[in-house]
Amino acid sequence: MVQKSDIWIRFPISCEDLHNAKNNWQEKFNFPSAIGAIDCTHIPILKPFIHADEYVNRKKFASINVQATCNLNEEFTSVDVSWPGSVHDSRIWKNSDIYNVMKWNRASAVLLGDAGYCIAPWLMTPFMILETVEHRSYNRLFTRERAIIERCFVQLKERFPILHNKIRVDTEKVLSLVMSCFILHNVAKHLNDEDFAVDIPGDGEQEEIHNGVIRQRGQFRRDAMSRIIHGFRV
């Protein structure tokens, strides 16, 4: 099953694919230049014997921290199941293949991520301080459209209840099992299977300077987007 992941879980890579993903998003939603949303979800597992503490997350249970992105059709476009539960979402993001795809994309495409991520020109996050009406308009639209990734996770776990509880198999097998669930979710979407009801609940000085520049560029772009979005009167 896992060998089929590249068939069923695909992230837009080329400039043409990214432009198409942007256009598709605009057919259903309104956030400028968006192609999808990103987030992580914890899957409970048995505490491994090796490197056990690395798997204990901030809520004090053993898990793997799975990063995923989704598109407007509530299909997963990328999934990374390789990280233990103690690893922060932002570290997983910066070490992922899609980080570089988005960083160097020439289509000006963006993903929508929550406040746990650092803003960048290719990753929009919410305003933490709402200083203007434009900021409030931005956050309303952002929150509404980013929620799609939360819906995907809820649908996934309702479709495969094993992901709700502690998976009692070896860690190596857990990764394959979890990835298989993500693949089958996309297969179910492709077959128009009925969805379940959803109720959404730095290293070193030079890197700090570099991250500061990225944050500033991301903030400039977010400010520009907030002015555009305010014109929608959302």
Automatic annotation (TrEMBL):
Name this polypeptide is given: DDE Tnp4 domain-containing protein
Pfam families in alphabetical order: DDE_Tnp_4 (PF13359)
Species in which this protein is naturally found: Acanthoscelides obtectus
Subcellular location: Nucleus
Superkingdom, taxonomy of origin: Eukaryota
Annotated GO MF terms: hydrolase activity; metal ion binding; nuclease activity
Entries under InterPro entries matching the protein: HARBI1-like (IPR045249), HARBI1_dom (IPR027806)
Keywords, in A-Z order: Hydrolase, Metal-binding, Nuclease, Nucleus
Essential cofactor(s): a divalent metal cation
Chief location of this protein within or outside the cell: nucleus
Residue stretches making up the DDE Tnp4 domain: 38-186
A GO CC term assigned to this protein in UniProt: nucleus
Transmembrane segments annotated in the record for this chain: none
Family of the protein in this entry: Belongs to the HARBI1 family.
